[in-house]
Amino acid sequence: MGSTTDSTGPVAMQRPADDPGPMSPVPHRVVGRRVETGDVTTLSLVPVTGDAWRFLPGQFNMLTAYGVGEAAISVCSSRREVGPLRHTVRDVGPVTAALCRSTVGDIVGVRGPFGTSWGVDDKLLATGDVVVVAGGIGLAPLRGAIDDLVYRTDAAGGRVFVVSGAREPAQVIFADDLEAWKRDGAVVAMTVDMAPTGWRGHVGLVTSVLGEIDFDPSTSSALICGPEIMMRLTARALVDRGIDPGRIRVSLERNMQCGLGWCGHCQLGPFLLCRDGPVLPYAGAVAQLLSERER
Amino acid sequence: MMRPVAELVASHPLFAGLPEDTTAEIAACARNVAFLPGELVLAEGQPADTLFLVRRGRVAIEIHAPDRGSIVVETVGPGGAVGWSWMFPPYRWQFDARALGPVGAVAIDATCLRAKADADDALGRLLVTRVAGVLLQRLQATRIRLLDLYGTDRAR
Question: Could you tell me which CATH class the domain B5-145 is placed in?
Fold first, then answer.
């Protein structure tokens, strides 16, 4: 039985009655494929039998390219989207290359969903602004959370700020979503490391953009996902700006394999990230671990 | 209604929190300026004679290459400052700076500011400390960008 968690703790997930167990991939059919950038592809998957699985934004699935291997990939669907589960994959090795090559009609194995979520609910915004900072493909695990925040059921409360960094404009994923969130009330800022001629947006680190947006740090929360150095620097910049470290959440990744906290490959200090993470509060042990050199 | 330039200088992050008489000294060298979209704020190779405190809009720091046109290396928005080459000889701009949209800024005459710093050691030290703080941030940010963090390190 797969498991998930929300802000109140573990929640049992509904799996098919003939569930073969959490280590057996469940066949899913690729029903959609979108190339986001040169090496990033989004796959839309539906179970060959049964209904699409439930998930919480921030959780991940283990995707199997049959005959090649398995990789941990975050669910990037929005909970408003009914139907296929979407996963955005960057081609960084044999498994992810095979997943990215999948075409509509192909079968991909899915185990999950695993791990913790961003814990986005109306209460989060009721306490103040929410600053979401994404780096590169780190926007994918945040997509569902941002969608929940922008299209929340309770219109009262704080504002939503989305700061997204990319290497260059051609590497920006979910450009349509960024536009839609902006149109629907979020403050959205894109920044790139390298700009081609004609680029009119920000050029620089995401931290340089944070200084230009007017969130209220005394009551704000923050969600950060991206390369670990970027998350470390961003979290420190937000704390320097006045956000309580306890209100900052980061998504950490190590060598996720079983997804259940059994094998220990994803251990980081006291955490088994596939089970205790990937989303963790920055305060305390995580802030310390992010600054430590691994041996 | 335009705020007095002394108030603008005092409220800019580069000089925030300084004693009023100090910001008044700096403001004595300052004036309000505005740039149209696409207008050059400063040009590579020209004498570096001004420190710009950006109040609104965004300025692109760029350099021209014959085969690539203008390459933007960084942008500076409200609360940032543009132009540091006035601090050290040969007082010549190393990059272009261009308004990406309508830009409002406070322009501080560098010759005037250097003269005041030369005459007042405390002001000079304070100026160097504040400017060095910004330059350190820029240097650190540039080093991080050199790492190409968004390269190919993550699959998800």
Answer: mainly beta
